[in-house]
Protein backbone atom coordinates (compact mmCIF):
# COMPACT_ATOMS: atom_id res chain seq x y z
CA UNK A 1 0.00 0.00 0.00
CA UNK A 2 1.62 3.31 -0.99
CA UNK A 3 2.01 5.76 1.88
CA UNK A 4 0.12 8.80 0.58
CA UNK A 5 -0.85 10.85 3.61
CA UNK A 6 -2.29 13.59 1.38
CA UNK A 7 -4.99 11.40 -0.16
CA UNK A 8 -7.63 12.76 2.25
CA UNK A 9 -6.75 15.21 4.98
CA UNK A 10 -8.95 17.01 7.50
CA UNK A 11 -7.38 20.02 9.20
CA UNK A 12 -9.23 21.55 12.14
CA UNK A 13 -12.57 20.51 10.65
CA UNK A 14 -15.58 22.02 12.41
CA UNK A 15 -19.27 21.52 11.66
CA UNK A 16 -21.58 23.62 13.82
CA UNK A 17 -25.35 23.86 13.44
CA UNK A 18 -26.86 27.15 14.68
CA UNK A 19 -29.71 26.99 17.19
CA UNK A 20 -32.64 29.30 16.52
CA UNK A 21 -33.05 31.46 19.61
CA UNK A 22 -36.45 32.20 21.12
CA UNK A 23 -38.12 35.46 22.09
CA UNK A 24 -36.55 35.56 25.56
CA UNK A 25 -33.08 35.02 24.06
CA UNK A 26 -33.55 38.06 21.85
CA UNK A 27 -35.01 40.20 24.63
CA UNK A 28 -32.25 39.29 27.07
CA UNK A 29 -29.56 39.69 24.42
CA UNK A 30 -28.21 36.20 24.79
CA UNK A 31 -25.48 35.30 22.29
CA UNK A 32 -26.43 32.84 19.54
CA UNK A 33 -25.69 29.19 20.30
CA UNK A 34 -24.78 26.28 18.07
CA UNK A 35 -24.60 22.51 18.18
CA UNK A 36 -20.88 21.75 17.90
CA UNK A 37 -21.30 18.37 16.19
CA UNK A 38 -17.69 18.30 14.96
CA UNK A 39 -15.40 20.60 16.91
CA UNK A 40 -11.97 20.66 15.29
CA UNK A 41 -10.51 17.33 14.17
CA UNK A 42 -7.34 16.48 12.26
CA UNK A 43 -7.37 13.20 10.36
CA UNK A 44 -5.74 11.76 7.27
CA UNK A 45 -6.56 8.66 5.25
CA UNK A 46 -4.00 7.07 2.95
CA UNK A 47 -4.76 5.55 -0.40
CA UNK A 48 -6.01 1.98 0.01
CA UNK A 49 -6.31 2.32 3.81
CA UNK A 50 -9.30 1.42 6.00
CA UNK A 51 -9.76 3.82 8.91
CA UNK A 52 -12.50 3.15 11.45
CA UNK A 53 -14.18 6.08 13.21
CA UNK A 54 -15.52 4.81 16.52
CA UNK A 55 -17.74 6.41 19.15
CA UNK A 56 -21.15 6.41 20.81
CA UNK A 57 -24.31 7.74 19.21
CA UNK A 58 -24.15 11.53 19.38
CA UNK A 59 -20.38 11.73 19.16
CA UNK A 60 -20.41 13.28 15.67
CA UNK A 61 -19.34 10.29 13.55
CA UNK A 62 -22.02 10.63 10.89
CA UNK A 63 -21.49 14.39 10.65
CA UNK A 64 -17.81 13.79 9.88
CA UNK A 65 -18.84 11.40 7.09
CA UNK A 66 -21.40 13.86 5.73
CA UNK A 67 -18.81 16.66 5.76
CA UNK A 68 -16.34 14.51 3.83
CA UNK A 69 -18.98 13.65 1.22
CA UNK A 70 -20.09 17.31 1.07
CA UNK A 71 -23.58 16.55 2.35
CA UNK A 72 -22.87 18.92 5.26
CA UNK A 73 -20.94 22.15 4.82
CA UNK A 74 -17.97 22.63 7.20
CA UNK A 75 -18.15 25.69 9.43
CA UNK A 76 -14.37 26.07 9.44
CA UNK A 77 -11.22 24.07 8.83
CA UNK A 78 -10.04 22.46 5.63
CA UNK A 79 -10.98 19.34 3.69
CA UNK A 80 -8.25 18.37 1.24
CA UNK A 81 -8.66 15.52 -1.23
CA UNK A 82 -5.64 14.62 -3.36
CA UNK A 83 -4.13 18.00 -2.34
CA UNK A 84 -7.20 19.87 -3.62
CA UNK A 85 -9.02 22.07 -1.09
CA UNK A 86 -12.70 21.12 -1.25
CA UNK A 87 -13.78 23.04 1.87
CA UNK A 88 -15.69 25.83 0.18
CA UNK A 89 -16.76 24.05 -3.02
CA UNK A 90 -20.55 24.07 -3.41
CA UNK A 91 -23.15 23.37 -6.07
CA UNK A 92 -23.98 20.19 -7.94
CA UNK A 93 -21.99 21.05 -11.07
CA UNK A 94 -18.88 22.11 -9.13
CA UNK A 95 -19.06 19.00 -6.94
CA UNK A 96 -19.63 16.54 -9.81
CA UNK A 97 -15.92 15.56 -10.17
CA UNK A 98 -15.62 15.19 -6.39
CA UNK A 99 -18.72 12.99 -6.10
CA UNK A 100 -17.22 10.79 -8.80
CA UNK A 101 -14.27 10.14 -6.48
CA UNK A 102 -16.01 10.07 -3.06
CA UNK A 103 -19.19 8.12 -2.29
CA UNK A 104 -21.16 7.22 0.86
CA UNK A 105 -22.88 4.05 2.05
CA UNK A 106 -25.76 4.97 4.37
CA UNK A 107 -26.72 3.13 7.54
CA UNK A 108 -30.36 2.37 6.77
CA UNK A 109 -30.44 0.65 3.40
CA UNK A 110 -34.22 0.58 3.23
CA UNK A 111 -34.47 4.35 3.71
CA UNK A 112 -31.62 4.95 1.26
CA UNK A 113 -33.42 3.12 -1.57
CA UNK A 114 -36.33 4.61 -3.51
CA UNK A 115 -39.16 2.06 -3.09
CA UNK A 116 -40.58 3.00 -6.51
CA UNK A 117 -37.36 2.32 -8.40
CA UNK A 118 -36.01 -1.03 -9.51
CA UNK A 119 -32.52 -2.17 -8.57
CA UNK A 120 -31.32 -1.28 -12.06
CA UNK A 121 -32.67 2.28 -11.79
CA UNK A 122 -31.18 2.73 -8.31
CA UNK A 123 -27.67 1.68 -9.33
CA UNK A 124 -27.87 3.53 -12.66
CA UNK A 125 -28.95 6.82 -11.09
CA UNK A 126 -25.48 8.04 -9.97
CA UNK A 127 -24.02 7.07 -13.36
CA UNK A 128 -26.63 9.17 -15.12
CA UNK A 129 -26.49 12.15 -12.75
CA UNK A 130 -22.69 12.31 -12.94
CA UNK A 131 -22.81 11.78 -16.73
CA UNK A 132 -20.37 8.86 -16.66
CA UNK A 133 -21.91 6.67 -19.37
CA UNK A 134 -22.95 6.99 -22.99
CA UNK A 135 -25.66 4.73 -24.32
CA UNK A 136 -27.82 2.00 -22.83
CA UNK A 137 -25.37 -0.87 -23.32
CA UNK A 138 -22.57 0.88 -21.43
CA UNK A 139 -25.02 1.75 -18.66
CA UNK A 140 -26.20 -1.88 -18.36
CA UNK A 141 -22.59 -3.13 -18.32
CA UNK A 142 -21.62 -0.73 -15.52
CA UNK A 143 -24.68 -1.65 -13.45
CA UNK A 144 -23.97 -5.37 -13.92
CA UNK A 145 -20.34 -4.85 -12.94
CA UNK A 146 -21.31 -2.96 -9.77
CA UNK A 147 -23.90 -5.53 -8.70
CA UNK A 148 -21.44 -8.38 -9.26
CA UNK A 149 -18.75 -6.55 -7.27
CA UNK A 150 -21.23 -6.15 -4.39
CA UNK A 151 -21.94 -9.90 -4.43
CA UNK A 152 -25.31 -9.94 -6.23
CA UNK A 153 -24.98 -12.72 -8.81
CA UNK A 154 -26.14 -13.15 -11.46
CA UNK A 155 -26.71 -9.38 -11.75
CA UNK A 156 -29.44 -9.67 -14.39
CA UNK A 157 -31.71 -11.47 -11.93
CA UNK A 158 -31.90 -8.31 -9.78
CA UNK A 159 -32.45 -5.69 -12.49
CA UNK A 160 -36.24 -5.65 -12.26
CA UNK A 161 -36.62 -6.23 -8.51
CA UNK A 162 -37.86 -3.58 -6.11
CA UNK A 163 -36.34 -2.95 -2.63
CA UNK A 164 -39.25 -4.63 -0.81
CA UNK A 165 -38.51 -7.84 -2.72
CA UNK A 166 -34.98 -8.06 -1.30
CA UNK A 167 -33.62 -9.30 2.00
CA UNK A 168 -31.79 -6.95 4.36
CA UNK A 169 -28.41 -8.16 3.18
CA UNK A 170 -29.39 -7.81 -0.48
CA UNK A 171 -30.63 -4.25 0.09
CA UNK A 172 -27.33 -3.34 1.72
CA UNK A 173 -25.48 -4.83 -1.25
CA UNK A 174 -27.57 -2.70 -3.62
CA UNK A 175 -26.55 0.41 -1.65
CA UNK A 176 -22.90 -0.69 -1.92
CA UNK A 177 -23.36 -1.32 -5.65
CA UNK A 178 -24.75 2.20 -6.10
CA UNK A 179 -21.60 3.61 -4.50
CA UNK A 180 -19.31 1.31 -6.49
CA UNK A 181 -20.93 2.04 -9.84
CA UNK A 182 -19.06 5.35 -10.22
CA UNK A 183 -15.73 3.64 -9.28
CA UNK A 184 -14.81 5.99 -6.41
CA UNK A 185 -11.42 6.32 -4.77
CA UNK A 186 -12.89 6.72 -1.27
CA UNK A 187 -16.04 5.31 0.31
CA UNK A 188 -17.51 6.56 3.58
CA UNK A 189 -19.44 3.64 5.09
CA UNK A 190 -21.77 4.85 7.87
CA UNK A 191 -22.63 1.85 10.09
CA UNK A 192 -23.16 -0.33 6.99
CA UNK A 193 -23.80 -3.55 8.93
CA UNK A 194 -25.41 -2.37 12.17
CA UNK A 195 -28.93 -3.39 11.04
CA UNK A 196 -27.93 -6.84 9.75
CA UNK A 197 -27.64 -10.17 11.50
CA UNK A 198 -24.22 -11.65 12.21
CA UNK A 199 -23.95 -14.00 9.23
CA UNK A 200 -24.88 -11.25 6.75
CA UNK A 201 -22.48 -8.83 8.48
CA UNK A 202 -19.56 -11.11 7.71
CA UNK A 203 -20.51 -11.26 4.03
CA UNK A 204 -20.83 -7.47 3.70
CA UNK A 205 -17.54 -6.86 5.51
CA UNK A 206 -15.81 -9.36 3.23
CA UNK A 207 -17.17 -7.48 0.20
CA UNK A 208 -15.67 -4.22 1.50
CA UNK A 209 -12.30 -5.81 2.29
CA UNK A 210 -12.15 -7.48 -1.14
CA UNK A 211 -12.94 -4.18 -2.86
CA UNK A 212 -10.07 -2.49 -1.03
CA UNK A 213 -7.69 -5.24 -2.11
CA UNK A 214 -8.89 -5.25 -5.72
CA UNK A 215 -9.17 -1.51 -6.40
CA UNK A 216 -6.81 0.02 -3.78
CA UNK A 217 -9.86 1.96 -2.58
CA UNK A 218 -9.77 3.84 0.72
CA UNK A 219 -12.56 3.36 3.25
CA UNK A 220 -13.74 5.39 6.24
CA UNK A 221 -15.69 2.84 8.29
CA UNK A 222 -18.01 4.52 10.82
CA UNK A 223 -19.13 2.30 13.69
CA UNK A 224 -19.89 2.22 17.41
CA UNK A 225 -18.52 -1.34 17.67
CA UNK A 226 -14.83 -1.40 18.68
CA UNK A 227 -14.30 -5.16 18.02
CA UNK A 228 -15.81 -4.74 14.56
CA UNK A 229 -13.47 -1.82 13.90
CA UNK A 230 -10.50 -3.93 15.03
CA UNK A 231 -11.57 -6.70 12.66
CA UNK A 232 -11.68 -4.57 9.50
CA UNK A 233 -9.54 -1.46 10.00
CA UNK A 234 -5.86 -0.63 9.66
CA UNK A 235 -6.22 2.31 12.04
CA UNK A 236 -8.89 3.36 14.53
CA UNK A 237 -9.83 6.93 15.44
CA UNK A 238 -11.97 7.35 18.59
CA UNK A 239 -14.40 10.29 18.51
CA UNK A 240 -16.07 11.79 21.57
CA UNK A 241 -18.37 14.82 21.46
CA UNK A 242 -16.89 16.11 18.21
CA UNK A 243 -13.23 15.61 19.18
CA UNK A 244 -10.74 12.86 18.37
CA UNK A 245 -9.55 11.59 21.75
CA UNK A 246 -7.31 8.75 20.53
CA UNK A 247 -5.98 7.43 17.24
CA UNK A 248 -3.56 4.63 16.37
CA UNK A 249 -3.27 1.21 14.79
CA UNK A 250 -6.18 -1.17 15.28
CA UNK A 251 -4.17 -3.41 17.61
CA UNK A 252 -2.83 -0.49 19.68
CA UNK A 253 -6.24 1.12 20.20
CA UNK A 254 -7.96 -2.18 21.01
CA UNK A 255 -5.37 -3.84 23.23
CA UNK A 256 -3.35 -0.91 24.56
CA UNK A 257 -5.74 2.07 24.92
CA UNK A 258 -4.55 5.15 26.81
CA UNK A 259 -7.69 7.27 27.00
CA UNK A 260 -10.32 6.34 29.65
CA UNK A 261 -13.09 6.64 27.05
CA UNK A 262 -11.42 4.12 24.74
CA UNK A 263 -10.94 1.80 27.71
CA UNK A 264 -14.63 2.15 28.58
CA UNK A 265 -15.67 1.36 25.00
CA UNK A 266 -13.50 -1.74 25.04
CA UNK A 267 -14.78 -2.90 28.40
CA UNK A 268 -18.38 -2.47 27.21
CA UNK A 269 -17.92 -5.24 24.64
CA UNK A 270 -17.24 -8.98 24.98
CA UNK A 271 -13.56 -9.82 25.40
CA UNK A 272 -11.87 -10.13 22.02
CA UNK A 273 -9.18 -12.62 23.08
CA UNK A 274 -8.54 -14.54 26.25
CA UNK A 275 -5.26 -12.82 27.16
CA UNK A 276 -6.53 -9.26 26.66
CA UNK A 277 -6.05 -7.28 29.86
CA UNK A 278 -8.93 -5.26 31.26
CA UNK A 279 -8.38 -2.00 33.07
CA UNK A 280 -10.59 -1.86 36.13
CA UNK A 281 -12.77 1.13 35.24
CA UNK A 282 -16.53 1.10 35.76
CA UNK A 283 -18.87 1.12 32.78
CA UNK A 284 -19.91 4.44 31.26
CA UNK A 285 -23.03 5.94 32.74
CA UNK A 286 -25.51 8.17 30.93
CA UNK A 287 -25.35 9.65 27.46
CA UNK A 288 -22.85 11.79 25.61
CA UNK A 289 -23.35 15.41 26.83
CA UNK A 290 -25.22 17.81 24.56
CA UNK A 291 -23.09 19.19 21.74
CA UNK A 292 -24.88 22.51 22.37
CA UNK A 293 -23.44 22.65 25.90
CA UNK A 294 -19.94 21.22 25.64
CA UNK A 295 -18.25 20.92 29.07
CA UNK A 296 -15.32 23.22 29.77
CA UNK A 297 -11.84 21.71 29.68
CA UNK A 298 -11.68 18.01 28.86
CA UNK A 299 -15.13 17.25 27.48
CA UNK A 300 -15.00 13.68 28.81
CA UNK A 301 -14.44 14.68 32.44
CA UNK A 302 -18.16 14.57 33.52
CA UNK A 303 -18.15 10.82 32.74
CA UNK A 304 -14.52 9.99 33.54
CA UNK A 305 -14.02 7.99 36.77
CA UNK A 306 -10.39 9.15 37.11
CA UNK A 307 -10.74 12.84 36.14
CA UNK A 308 -9.09 15.45 38.36
CA UNK A 309 -9.27 19.24 38.68
CA UNK A 310 -7.08 20.04 35.67
CA UNK A 311 -9.46 18.13 33.37
CA UNK A 312 -12.28 20.52 34.27
CA UNK A 313 -10.27 23.64 33.51
CA UNK A 314 -7.97 22.82 30.59
CA UNK A 315 -8.48 20.77 27.44
CA UNK A 316 -5.71 18.18 27.08
CA UNK A 317 -3.65 18.23 23.84
CA UNK A 318 -3.10 15.12 21.75
CA UNK A 319 0.25 13.60 22.74
CA UNK A 320 2.14 10.69 21.22
CA UNK A 321 2.03 7.72 23.61
CA UNK A 322 3.59 5.21 21.18
CA UNK A 323 4.68 5.08 17.57
CA UNK A 324 1.81 6.47 15.44
CA UNK A 325 -0.47 6.40 18.52
CA UNK A 326 -1.79 9.62 20.07
CA UNK A 327 -4.22 10.26 22.91
CA UNK A 328 -5.76 13.49 24.25
CA UNK A 329 -5.73 12.87 28.01
CA UNK A 330 -3.71 14.31 30.91
CA UNK A 331 -3.30 10.77 32.22
CA UNK A 332 -2.08 9.32 28.92
CA UNK A 333 1.57 9.62 29.87
Structure write-up:
The chain is α/β, with parallel strands linked by helices. It has a domain of 224 residues: P-loop containing nucleotide triphosphate hydrolases (Rossmann fold, 3-Layer(aba) Sandwich), CATH 3.40.50. It is built from 12 helices and 12 strands. Strands 6-7-8-3-9-10-12-11 form an 8-stranded mixed sheet, with helices on both faces. A 4-stranded antiparallel sheet has the order 2-1-4-5. The protein starts with 7 loop residues before the first strand and ends in a 6-residue tail after the last strand. The mean pLDDT is 88.
Q: Please identify the structural class as seen in this structure.
A: alpha/beta
Question: What fraction of residues sit in β-strands?
Answer: 15-25%
- Low-pLDDT segments, ≥5 res: none
Strands in their spatial order, largest beta sheet: 6-7-8-3-9-10-12-11
